[in-house]
Each structure stands twice: as structure tokens, then as C-alpha cells.
Design brief:
The complex is a heterodimer of chains A (about 450) and B (about 270).
Chain A: H1 2-23, E1 30-34, H2 40-54, E2 58-62, H3 68-76, E3 84-87, H4 90-96, H5 107-111, E4 119-121, E5 124-129, E6 133-140, H6 141-148, H7 166-178, H8 180-183, E7 187-189, H9 200-216, H10 224-230, H11 239-251, H12 265-273, E8 277-283, H13 286-292, E9 303-306, E10 318-323, E11 327-330, H14 336-351, H15 353-362, H16 381-391, E12 395-398, H17 407-421, H18 427-444
Parallel strand pairs in A: 1-2, 7-8, 10-12
Antiparallel strand pairs in A: 3-11, 4-5, 5-11, 6-8, 6-9, 6-10
Chain B: H1 2-21, E1 24-25, E2 33-34, H2 38-44, H3 47-78, H4 85-93, H5 100-116, H6 126-154, H7 158-166, H8 171-182, H9 184-199, H10 203-208, H11 220-230, H12 235-263
Antiparallel strand pairs in B: 1-2
Helix pairs in contact in B: 2-12, 3-6, 3-9, 3-11, 4-6, 6-9, 7-8, 9-12, 11-12
Classes of the chains: A alpha/beta (about 450), B mainly alpha (about 270).
Chain lengths: ~450, ~270
């Protein structure tokens, strides 16, 4: 009897738990699924302020680094699904198009300075970019100045701003490696991080350059992303340019090539911040990371950007790689009321004084909206550098990696790079892997 | 009745849904589209899956043997009347209390620290990952299996052993003809636990190598995870792999149970 009662009780609690879990509906709440772990705390603050101002509760959930897609997949099938989430451009839109709401008629869309930045399909607008970012080679100007003041430097130029192609860059870097003891550095470049999940600077960002040039040669499309999306195969025509700069990174690095499989992005940013290296390839988001390292010796006015030169003809006119892969999307499957609340929240964030101050001062976003005046642009050195480079007489490299067929493609690329660095694969094998996996991943997506 | 209900909710329904989903294409469980057996075809034509399968089989064979041999040896030593046996038993058991992810990262540091001296890392070759995993699993499971063997060995009646001694049987004879048959139930349990644990190993694999280099050290569970989350539109294939995985683990475990059960004797 007792046993039976226990059993009934157990099942009853189990069911009660299930029902409670499913049945809880909070109609008013906005659920914001955040993509960037490094800024999670700021969003928590924004949510609190917004609730104090309007009474609407904003729930912020942040996915851990590299797990955003996983998190989104599990969260969106819940009854309390995210109302605001992020898609990574046209490819992300393909995966989530059943869930994205058309934002054509929102004020948020009308704020965009350049409407062509949005993710569109037919007449609809499904993703609104909220931050533009730039990446290139970050360098420590103090070390560079020290180098250029050396009496026995092997190059004829006398400042970093004169580096405008691969040949010059290579000459400078190799000479700096030879004189690294005089300069007080361990290597010119920070470690090329190739640990699992830490390869994105190479398999996405650096890989962007050769493929950008390849798709640019395809004149049938006016946009390299669209050209990339339409290509079932690639010839990896500028593969040697990739090899040029990748070899330059690994040959003149702080750490030995065979150790790269255990290095992380945080390691290499720390090396830069501690003055052990003079250069590191990364984007303006790395400022907070450089600034946050204990014992940081780099002064903020010494942190500068230069484009990634790979030896493509005409690259003297090449700028930083500027773009975005972060687009807000509104969940089209939640109630209309929630959708409106969510849109209102985003509009508040990008047009109210308070919201804009968060965007500029706390998040350091270069927001592509016309609601921001010049005085409201971020003040951190790298963001300023990106703005400067965008105003120079150079053309920015488009973030073409939005057209890469899948995460798997990038990972095959990154894994091959690791094996190449460790000496287990030849460069030709890497090229074959890149071409084959592009083809097979494209075929799978059909 | 309550048991059946709980069993239905917690096991049968998810299981049946899993099999159904393996025959569909889906992004979230609510929008599945029927595609029949094509997911299974894709799974088996996938070189990574076959690699992972082969890696898992090799890993399981080696770790099942080494874990059980060492666990049994330790159990024999620690059932002697030695000083401090209880302390040692506790120490050997402790690794089992640490979670797999933590263990993976700790061993990654240790192994990379050693390999550092030779200018290589765990990711240099799948062989390092393989032996790293074997060492890790041994370290984690030997203590647990040892406890089970100790319980078995202590249950061997003293009078039988004494009788054998008086009859003049050597130590190895006693071990082979008296102890081993009588601890057969423990062996059944330990083999079952090690086989199933080795086959479904996931967190240690993820933390230690995450499949590097180039997925060569990925085991089945990690491969399934990667398929499921790596590419949208491939969730069904991941699900199909998971069903294959289930059938495989279940049948190996069952065969092993039947085989060792047969060898058990009453004392």
C-alpha cells in the first residue's frame, strides 16, 4: 500500500513538474538570446534599465563562446522561445527563415544608414545589422617605432604607414624577427591559435581574403557574398596568397609551429598586451581583451591597425576587412504582442539617449544607424582606427565568409591548417581539402 | 501502473520519437519531414562516421582489457592483510568522483605539459589522443572496478580457499580454479560497465582532443554530436547515427552479459 502511494506521488510530482514547465507563459517578457559572451554583462544592465523605464521585462540569455547555433536550436523549440535572436547573414537566414519576421516596416530598418547591409529575401527584410566591425593586423606602434629607429634596419622605409603591400610587410617582419632581442619581443606575431574552437581567425577571417578576391573576379554578381553563395565550386585561385601570409605568421611567431594546436585566441591577445609580440591579426572587438589583460604594457594610443596584405596585385588600395555577421532577427512564431515589444526594445536601444550611450560607451559598437551623431561614435582606439580606415582612399574588404557553405567547411579548413602547421600535411593537400570540402558542403546543403 | 507510466514518459516515448526522427529531416522536433531511410544511407556513406566507429572499437578493446586487468590486480593486493588498505581503496576510488569534462581538461594540461618537452602537442597526431584517452579512462575507472572486484573477492568463502591450500594447490592454481570462477558475477558487472562506458565516452573525448587533428580522434558519441549540431539539415543523419549507436552498444552489452553469465558458478 505504502509503496503504491509512493509511486503515485512520484508520478504526480513528475507530471506536475512537466505541466508547470510547459504551462508558464509570461506574455509581456522579451527574451533576448545574446550571441556575444564578452558583452553579456552590459546587456544585463541594459535590460534592467529598460525594465525600470518601461516596465517591460527583458530576459537576456547568453550562449557560451562558439555554441550559439546549438543554444538557439534548443531554445527556439521551447514554449518560452527567444523573441530576439541573431542570424549570421544570408546563410544563417537560410537555416532560420521559418522563424524570422519581416522587418521592412519597422523604424529600426528605416534607421539604417546603408539599407543594403540588411539581410533581405524578395521584398522582405529579415535581419538588421547592428554593428559593423573591422579586422586586420593590429600592431603595437611603440615597438614599430623602436624598430624603425634602429640604425641597422634592412628596409628603406621609415614608418609603419609606408607598409602597403605584402613584399614590404614581409621584409619588415623578417628583419624584425632577426632583431627581436634588440626590440625586446619574443616574436613579431602573436601565436596562431589553432586549438579546437579557436581557429576562426584563420578559417574565417584570413580565408576571407583569397575568397573575396576570387569572387570579386566573378563579374556576373555585384556582390562577393552573392557570388560566393552561387558558387558550387571554388578554384582557390588566391590560395598562394593565403599561404604567403599564413607562413609569415607562423614563421615569425612567438611560439613554435608544433605548439599551435594548444594555443587559444586569449593566449595570443595576452602575448600582444604584454608586449611579447608586435602584431596580431584580430578585429576591433579585441580592444577590451587587450585592455583587460593584467600587466598590460601597451598604451592605447600605440594600438593601430593595418590591412592584411597577401600579395594580390593592386593591394596598395586595400583597406581593412569591414562588415558584420550579426543581424537581429525577430522570432515570427511568438505572439504579435511579444514581437512588437521586442521591436520597440531594439528601437529604444538604438535611438534613445540612454540606449545609444550603452551602444557607444559600454559596448563600443560602431552602429550603422543614422540615429548616431559623430560625437556618439565609440572612443576605443581600434574602433577609431576602423572609422579612419573607412574614410581613407582605400576600398574595404567585404566579409565574404558569410558565403562559406557551413561551419563544417570552416572546420575542415582550420583542421587542415593545423596539420599543415604541424608538418603532417603539405600545402597542396590543404588546397585540395579546401576545394573538396567547399564542393561537398555545397552539395550537402541542396 | 505508476511505474509503467513513469517508464513510458521517461523512456519509451523519447525512444520511439528518436527512432521516428531518424527517418525524417528536421531542424526542431516540431517541424519534421519524412524522408525514409536516406539518413541511414548518408550516415554509412560518411567516412568520418566509419573512422569514429573504428577508433571507438580500438579504444574500447584496449581500455576494457587494461582497466579490468589493473582493477583486478589492485583488488587482489588490497584484499591481503596489508597496512592502510582502506586508505588506498579510497584513493584509488576518488578519480571516479570527478566529472569527465574536468578530467579531460586536467589531463590535457598534464599530457601537453609532458609532450611540450618533445615540441609536440596532443593535436599533433591521433595516436597521442588515443593513448591519452586510454590513460585517462584507466585512471578514472580502475578504482571503481576495483571496488566491485574487492566485494567479489571478499565473498569467496575462506574455507574453500583453505581446503585448496591443504590439498596443496599453488597460488596460481587457487586463483584460476577457485577465485576466478567465484568472482565471475563481479567480472560480468565490471565488463558490462567498462564496455558500455568506453563505447559511449563523450565528455572526456570532447575536453581532451575535441577530435583533433581533423576529427581523427573523434569517437562515436562526439561524431554524433558534431553531425547533429554541425550543419542544419543534418539533424536527421545525426539521429540515424544515434540509433545505429544504440543498437550497437545494446547488442554488444547483451552478448557480453550472456557470455559471462554462462561462466558464473554457485558457491
Amino acid at each position: 500500500m505504502n509503496k503504491k502511494l509512493m509511486g503515485v506521488l512520484l508520478v504526480a510530482t513528475l507530471i506536475a513538474g512537466l505541466v508547470a514547465g510547459c504551462g508558464k507563459k509570461d506574455e509581456k517578457a522579451i527574451y533576448f538570446l545574446n550571441f556575444k559572451p564578452e558583452i553579456a554583462e552590459v546587456y544585463e544592465k541594459i535590460a534592467k534599465d529598460y525594465e525600470a523605464e518601461t516596465g517591460v521585462k527583458v530576459k537576456v540569455v547568453t550562449a557560451a563562446a562558439g555554441t550559439y547555433e546549438t543554444k538557439l536550436k534548443s531554445e527556439i523549440s521551447k514554449s518560452d522561445a527567444p523573441t530576439i535572436f541573431q542570424i549570421n547573414g544570408p546563410v544563417g537566414y537560410e537555416a532560420w527563415k521559418d522563424y524570422t519576421l519581416d522587418l521592412k516596416d519597422t523604424k529600426l530598418y528605416s534607421y539604417l544608414t546603408d539599407k543594403s547591409l540588411a539581410v533581405t529575401s524578395g521584398d522582405g527584410v529579415y535581419g538588421i545589422p547592428y554593428v559593423v566591425e573591422g579586422y586586420g593586423i593590429i600592431y603595437n606602434d611603440a615597438i614599430m617605432k623602436k624598430y624603425f629607429s634602429l640604425a641597422d634596419k634592412a628596409v628603406s622605409i621609415s614608418s609603419t604607414s609606408e607598409i602597403n603591400n605584402y613584399a614590404t610587410l614581409k621584409a619588415v617582419v623578417e628583419d624584425m624577427t632577426a632583431k627581436k632581442d634588440q626590440l625586446g619581443i619574443k616574436g613579431v606575431f602573436s601565436s596562431t591559435s589553432l586549438a579546437a574552437g579557436e581557429q576562426w581567425r584563420w578559417q574565417s577571417h584570413l580565408a576571407n581574403l583569397p575568397l573575396f578576391y576570387e569572387f570579386k573576379d566573378n563579374t556576373a554578381y555585384d556582390n562577393t557574398i552573392l557570388a560566393g553563395l552561387a558558387s558550387d565550386e571554388i578554384s582557390f585561385k588566391y590560395g598562394d596568397n593565403f599561404k604567403n601570409v599564413f607562413d609569415l605568421y607562423t614563421n615569425n611567431s612567438v611560439s613554435n609551429k608544433s605548439m599551435l594546436g594548444s594555443k587559444t585566441v586569449a593566449d595570443s591577445m595576452a602575448e600582444f598586451a604584454l608586449g611579447q609580440s608586435a602584431m596580431v591579426q584580430n578585429g576591433n572587438w579585441a580592444w577590451s581583451q587587450i585592455n583587460g589583460v593584467d600587466g598590460n604594457v601597451v598604451k592605447s594610443e600605440d594600438i593601430k591597425f593595418m590591412p592584411i596584405y597577401t600579395g594580390v596585385p593592386g593591394e596598395e588600395k586595400q583597406g581593412l576587412a569591414v562588415g558584420t555577421e550579426n543581424y537581429f532577427a525577430i522570432n515570427g512564431k511568438v505572439s504579435a504582442e511579444k514581437q512588437q515589444e521586442s521591436i520597440a526594445f531594439l528601437e529604444w536601444l538604438f535611438s534613445s539617449e540612454k540606449g545609444k550611450s550603452y551602444i557607444t560607451n559600454d559596448l563600443g559598437f560602431i552602429a550603422p544607424f543614422n540615429t548616431f551623431t559623430d560625437a556618439e561614435k565609440p572612443a576605443d582606439p581600434l574602433a577609431k582606427e576602423v572609422s579612419n580606415w573607412m574614410e581613407k582612399d582605400v576600398s574595404s574588404v567585404v566579409w565574404t565568409f558569410a558565403a562559406f557553405p557551413s561551419e563544417d567547411f570552416k572546420n575542415y579548413f582550420g583542421d587542415a591548417l593545423l596539420e599543415y602547421a604541424q608538418g603532417n600535411k603539405t600545402w597542396d593537400e590543404v588546397v585540395t581539402i579546401v576545394k573538396d570540402s567547399w564542393k561537398s558542403e555545397k552539395a550537402k546543403a541542396k | 501502473m505508476p511505474t509503467i507510466l513513469a517508464f513510458l514518459i521517461a523512456f519509451v516515448i523519447p525512444f520511439v520519437m528518436g527512432i521516428y526522427l531518424s527517418l525524417t529531416e528536421f531542424t526542431t522536433v516540431t517541424d519534421a519531414k519524412w524522408v525514409g531511410f536516406s539518413n541511414y544511407a548518408k550516415a554509412f556513406s560518411n567516412q568520418e562516421f566509419l573512422n569514429a566507429l573504428w577508433f571507438t572499437v580500438r579504444f574500447s578493446v584496449i581500455s576494457v582489457i587494461s582497466i579490468n586487468v589493473f582493477a583486478f590486480i589492485f583488488a587482489m593486493l588490497l584484499t591481503r592483510k596489508l597496512r592502510g588498505t582502506n586508505v588506498f581503496r579510497t584513493i584509488f576510488f576518488m578519480p571516479n568522483l570527478i566529472g569527465g569534462i574536468v578530467l579531460g581538461y586536467i589531463w590535457q594540461l598534464i599530457i601537453n605539459g609532458i609532450l611540450n618537452n618533445y615540441e609536440v602537442t596532443l593535436t599533433s597526431s591521433a595516436t597521442y589522443g588515443f593513448w591519452g584517452l586510454v590513460v585517462l579512462m584507466n585512471w578514472q575507472l580502475i578504482g571503481y572496478m576495483m571496488i566491485i572486484y574487492i566485494a567479489g573477492i571478499q565473498n569467496v568463502p575462506k574455507d574453500i580457499v583453505e581446503a585448496a591450500k591443504i590439498d596443496g594447490a599453488s597460488r596460481s592454481k587457487i586463483l584460476r580454479n577457485v577465485t576466478l570462477p567465484l568472482v565471475m558475477p563481479s567480472i560480468t558487472i565490471c565488463l558490462f560497465l567498462t564496455v558500455s562506458n568506453s563505447f559511449k565516452l563523450f565528455d572526456q573525448n570532447l575536453a581532451l582532443t575535441a577530435g583533433a587533428p581533423s576529427k581523427q580522434s573523434a569517437m562515436l558519441a562526439l561524431d554524433i554530436f558534431n553531425t547533429f549540431y554541425g550543419k542544419s539539415g543534418y539533424e536527421g543523419v545525426g539521429q540515424a547515427k544515434a540509433v545505429v549507436f544504440f543498437v550497437l552498444v545494446a547488442s554488444i552489452a547483451l552478448i557480453q552479459l550472456v557470455l559471462t553469465r554462462r561462466k558464473e558458478v554457485e558457491n
